[in-house]
């Protein structure tokens, strides 16, 4: 028994020696370790100093449990932090899913909208093409109206104005231009339209000619005015296509001028201190003054007639001029004849008769005819 106890005691001693050697070895290793260069150890010691504040036996015994508790607390904090991260990620996942659903819905709507827009674009293109056609038709219609119709202003000038001006004749010229254009319209195969327009223009022309006729009846006596002379010439040029109206106005003009010429002749004979009849006692002078006055006055009437007929290119102006001048001069033949006959019947002297005859022959020579 004693030997066994001794053996056990020796074994314990050997075991303690071994443990002491191991501890000594570890201590030596720890002592030999250069802690200043080991960052992990420094960080661990720094963390350990936070909760290991007293170096007592109890503290050393509880160090392991405190470290484990500390580790557990850190892990719990880590788990708690990651739980929040997970919840945030789950929320983000749900948001992403919602966004994905929204994007899918928007994609579907865009596709539907694209299909509808495609139809709308086709309809818009079709409507635009129709609009272009309508716009082109409108432009053609407006151009046609400008070419073949009178404007409101022109119609007012033609219908409503009581006076005649150059604008009025411009409107009549436009009516004639439209009539000529209708011939081209007929050649293009638009006979019905051209005939309707021609009929309308004919009515406008008749309205204008009727207005010219009535205006000339009133103002033909004003040929001495330069402004009226131009308008009367334009009026006669318009009336020359209608022979009856042209003849009526020409007859009216001759009547007016004949009356004016007779009045002027009578005034020259009887009015003023230098009246021709104040020298009636001198047969030669008396007869010469009467014939000389007529010789000086009648050419002016020819000038007026030429001005009146200068635009009448479709009329035999020479014949009309000769007949009209004879008509105007006819008014003074009776007063002249009465006075010449009185001279001839009241004087039987051959000298007087010869003198009067010579004067009459002198003014009947071709070089004394009205030029």
UniProtKB/TrEMBL annotation:
Compartment(s): Golgi apparatus membrane
One Gene Ontology term, aspect cellular component: Golgi membrane
GO biological process, one term: protein transport
Record key words, sorted: Golgi apparatus, Membrane, Protein transport, Transport
Annotated ranges, domain Conserved Oligomeric Golgi complex subunit 6 C-terminal: 192-365
Function in brief: Required for normal Golgi function.
This protein's name: Conserved oligomeric Golgi complex subunit 6
Source organism per UniProt: Cacopsylla melanoneura
Lineage: Eukaryota, Metazoa, Ecdysozoa, Arthropoda, Hexapoda
């Amino acid at each position: 028994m004693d030997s066994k106890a001794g053996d056990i005691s020796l074994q314990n001693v050997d075991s303690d020696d071994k443990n002491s050697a191991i501890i000594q070895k570890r201590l030596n290793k720890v002592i030999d370790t250069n802690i200043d260069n080991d960052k992990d150890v420094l960080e661990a010691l720094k963390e350990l100093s936070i909760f290991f504040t007293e170096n007592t036996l109890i503290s050393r015994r509880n160090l392991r449990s405190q470290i484990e508790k500390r580790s557990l607390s850190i892990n719990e904090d880590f788990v708690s932090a990651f739980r929040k991260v997970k919840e945030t990620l789950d929320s983000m996942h749900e948001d992403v899913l919602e966004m994905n659903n929204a994007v899918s819905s928007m994609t579907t709507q865009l596709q539907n909208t694209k299909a509808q827009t495609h139809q709308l674009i086709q309809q818009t293109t079709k409507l635009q093409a129709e609009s272009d056609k309508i716009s082109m038709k409108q432009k053609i219609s407006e151009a046609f109206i400008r070419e073949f119709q009178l404007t409101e202003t022109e119609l007012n000038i033609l219908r409503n104005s009581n006076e005649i001006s150059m604008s009025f004749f411009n409107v009549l010229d436009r009516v004639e231009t439209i009539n000529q254009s209708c011939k081209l319209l007929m050649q293009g195969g638009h006979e019905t339209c051209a005939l309707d327009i021609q009929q309308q223009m004919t009515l406008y022309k008749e309205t204008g000619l009727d207005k010219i006729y009535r205006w000339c009846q009133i103002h033909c006596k004003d040929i001495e005015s330069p402004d009226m002379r131009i308008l009367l010439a334009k009026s006669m040029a318009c009336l020359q296509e209608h022979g009856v109206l042209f003849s009526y106005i020409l007859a009216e003009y001759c009547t007016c001028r004949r009356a004016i010429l007779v009045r002027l002749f009578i005034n020259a004979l009887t009015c003023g201190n230098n009246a021709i009849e104040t020298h009636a006692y001198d047969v030669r002078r008396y007869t010469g003054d009467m014939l000389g006055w007529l010789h000086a006055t009648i050419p002016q009437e020819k000038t007026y007639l030429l001005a009146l007929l200068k635009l009448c290119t479709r009329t035999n102006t020479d014949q009309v001029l000769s007949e009209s001048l004879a008509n105007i001069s006819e008014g003074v033949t009776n007063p002249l004849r009465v006075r010449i006959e009185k001279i001839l019947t009241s004087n039987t002297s051959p000298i007087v008769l010869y003198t009067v005859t010579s004067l009459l022959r002198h003014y009947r020579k071709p070089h004394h005819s009205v030029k």
